[in-house]
Every structure is written in structure tokens, then in C-alpha cells.
Design brief:
The chain is an alpha/beta fold. Helices cover 43% and strands 11% of the residues. The longest helix is centred in the last third of the chain and has 25 residues. The radius of gyration is 23 Å and the shape is flat.
């Protein structure tokens, strides 16, 4: 397969499944920035795929299709989604029937084989149980998510992410609730504990090159070394995820190939401050560790503050 853009973790998994099932040939070109790059390319008379693992309210998919109205001509747009909420599926069908313009002779195809369409979950509980669930959910302090984003009321999660269409008691601690033991609410599938969420948040911080460079120069001066921005970024990223495979690091950090990454690892190891080849990696002295820990706290302190508070006895947090 030729990938014309970087794949995120979810897209990569979806595309792999589809190829393994024989629904795509490996020579197909896939542009994975669906809503940004299509307007800048000529896709006339082409087949365009929209991949997603989950469709909740349908809002994101409909927003993407609205952006593309008029920019595609004589195209087949094939929508491939692994699982849907019933409301999202209905909203999309309604949009395609009543709002989406077909003046450019485009054809929308929903690939519906083997998809999962989830109905309401309310009937899985007694009336009293459902009322208690909704009472707790109404205490959620995230605007628009008291019953899941878009009022979806979903109860589905994946091994890599819990959609915010779920009832908030599943995925967020931001619920103004205390139990009889004076304990705050603790979700069993927190979005902020998810590694793919953390990948994105950490990379967003590390992309602020001018801020990162301030600490890089201090570390270089302190230890009399010459780490580049990419090498310093590599160390900081690995401080959060210590056992990643090289192939994963190449993709996540945007190296062109594995050799570039290996070269940076070798240069970092030659500084004698850290051994990245060790699994998990280790700093070569407590002094070095504490200096990098200061940098880590400055850059990622706000992101990991919640996680630190959660590390109390029994995994719950006490307001007192």
C-alpha cells in the first residue's frame, strides 16, 4: 500500500483490517487527511474512501461531507465505518437524502456489510437503575456531554479509546459526585489514560519548538553536550513511553525511516547521559535523571497532574 499521508493509530488499524479482508488492493493510494487535502487535489472520476472506527452522532462525518460539497466531481465516495450508533446512522441517511447536493454527479455508498449498529442501551437496565445512571451523568461538568456528546447516550468502548459519545460516567472524572465514602467519581475507561490520547497531547507540546529549545539549551550547557531538537524530543517522548518499538517511534515522531531514528539513538547514547538501547531505557546517574525530571515537569506537569492525583489507595481520589 502506498500511503500518501501519515496514518494515525486508528486509521492504520482500520486500513489493515480492510486489506486483510481482501476489500482493498495493496497498491491503492490512500490520502489520510480526508477533509483537508481533497480540495487541493484533482479527484475527478476517482473513488474516495472515508474510514472511521466509530460514528456516534454523525456530526463529524456530516461536517466533513459539507466541506467537500462541490469539490469532488463524478466521484464515488465510499463510507467505511466499523460501528455506528443508531442515531448517527439515521442522521447521516437523513443528511444524504435531504441536504447533500448531488449537482456534481457524486455517488455516496455506505459499505454496510458486517457493520454494527447499536440501539439505545436504556432497555438493558431497570427504570430505577437508568434513573440513577442519568442522575450521576447530569453532574458532569463538561458542557454538552451530560448524556454523551450530542446526547448520544452510548455505552461502548474500544481497547484504545472510549468515545465521548459514551455516558460521561464511563470516560471522565469531571463529575461533581461524592459517594458515601466521600470519594470522587473515577471512570473505568478514562480518555486521558489512553495511550493514543497521550501520544497526541505529548506531541502537541513537543511541537512548540521554541519552548522545548529553551530547555534543550539548558541541558546542553549543563552537561556540555550537543543534542539537536529531534534528539532532545526523542528523550522526552521516551520518558513517557519507555517500551515502544522502533517502528512505532518512526511513525509517531515522523522520522522518514528507521535508519534516521537509529542514528539519533546512537548519538544520544554516545553522550553518556542515557542509554536508549536499554529496555526500558535508563539515565546514567541520578543527577541526570533529576535534571530531565525538572524539564519533564515544566513541559508536561499540567497534562500529568490529574494522573498523579489518581494514584491513591484503591485507584480513587479523595476530595479531602
Amino acid at each position: 500500500m502506498k500511503r500518501t499521508d501519515r496514518l494515525d493509530a486508528n486509521t492504520n488499524k482500520i486500513v489493515s483490517y480492510i486489506i486483510d479482508d481482501g476489500n482493498l488492493f495493496k497498491t491503492i493510494n490512500i490520502n489520510c487527511e480526508f477533509d483537508n487535502n481533497l480540495k487541493n487535489n484533482n479527484y475527478e472520476n476517482k473513488t474516495v474512501y472515508y474510514f472511521d472506527d466509530f460514528c456516534g452522532s454523525g456530526e463529524q462525518l456530516i461536517k466533513t461531507l459539507r466541506k467537500l460539497e462541490g469539490s469532488l466531481i463524478n466521484c464515488k465516495i465510499k463510507i467505511v465505518i466499523f460501528s455506528w450508533l443508531h442515531m448517527g446512522y439515521q442522521n447521516l441517511i437523513r443528511f444524504l437524502k435531504n441536504e447533500f447536493k448531488t449537482t456534481h454527479n457524486n455517488e455516496i455508498i455506505l459499505l454496510e456489510d458486517n457493520i454494527i449498529i447499536l440501539e439505545s442501551f436504556a432497555d438493558k437496565f431497570t427504570y430505577e437503575e437508568w434513573e440513577k445512571i442519568l442522575t450521576i451523568c447530569k453532574m458532569c461538568t463538561i458542557k454538552g456531554c451530560q448524556q454523551g456528546y450530542g446526547n448520544s447516550q452510548a455505552m461502548i468502548t474500544f481497547d484504545y479509546l472510549s468515545p465521548n459519545n459514551n455516558l460521561p460516567l464511563i470516560w471522565t472524572h469531571k463529575i461533581d459526585y461524592l459517594d458515601k465514602s466521600n470519594q470522587l467519581w473515577y471512570p473505568f475507561s478514562s480518555r486521558k489514560n489512553n495511550k493514543f490520547y497521550l501520544y497526541g497531547e505529548i506531541l502537541t507540546i513537543l511541537k512548540k519548538k521554541s519552548k522545548v529549545d529553551v530547555f534543550r539549551k539548558k541541558i546542553n550547557d549543563y552537561f556540555h553536550i550537543k543534542l539537536t531538537y529531534n534528539q532532545f524530543r526523542l528523550i522526552l517522548f521516551c520518558m513517557n513511553f519507555r517500551c515502544l518499538l522502533l517502528d512505532d517511534l518512526v511513525s509517531i515522531l515522523g522520522y522518514d525511516n528507521k535508519n534516521q531514528l537509529i542514528e539519533d539513538i546512537e548519538i544520544v547514547n554516545q553522550t553518556n547521559i542515557i542509554d536508549l538501547s536499554h529496555k526500558p531505557f535508563k539515565f546514567n546517574s541520578n543527577e541526570i535523571f533529576h535534571e530531565f525530571k525538572k524539564v519533564h515537569e515544566n513541559l508536561f506537569g499540567e497534562l500529568f497532574n490529574l494522573k498523579k492525583k489518581k494514584n491513591t489507595l484503591s485507584g480513587r481520589r479523595n476530595r479531602n
